[in-house]
Amino acid sequence: MNPSAIKYRAWLLRLWRETPSAPWRIALENVSTGERQGFADLESMLAYLQTICAGGESDSLLVPKEYE
After folding, report:
1. Which of 11, 27, 39, 50 is surrounded by the fewest CB atoms within 10 Å?
2. Helix, coil or strand: residue 14
3. Looking at residue 3, what is its pLDDT?
4. Is 13 buried (19+), middle (13-18) or exposed (0-12) by CB count in 10 A?
């Protein structure tokens, strides 16, 4: 496999509620940069990920160590 063609992105997904009846809170943390992004709902988070996967956002791209 061509290492230059491999793109890798990783986030830590956090979901939590302040109280049992509260709406879910959502955050993604880019594991390479530590940048955090909060979302009001799952649809917003999915739209963000779709934009990144379509190439509309230039966040950090990582090459897994096994391909370096």
Report:
1. 50
2. strand
3. 53
4. exposed
State the maximum Cα–Cα separation within the chain, in Å, rounded to a whole number: 49
- Which residues of the chain have a pLDDT value below 70? 1-6, 56-68
Q: Which residues of 23-61 are buried (b: 16+ CB within 10 A; e: fewer)?
A: eeebebebeeeeeeeebeeeeebeebeeebeeeeeeeee
Q: Residue 28: beta bridge partners?
A: 13, 37
d(CA 68, CA 10): 17
| Predicted TM-score (pTM) of this structure | 0.67
Q: How far is CA 55 from CA 10, 27, 43, 47, in A?
A: 15, 21, 19, 13
Task: Count Cβ atoms within 10 A of the Cβ of residue 17 and give its class: 0-12 exposed, 13-18 middle, 19 or more buried.
Answer: exposed
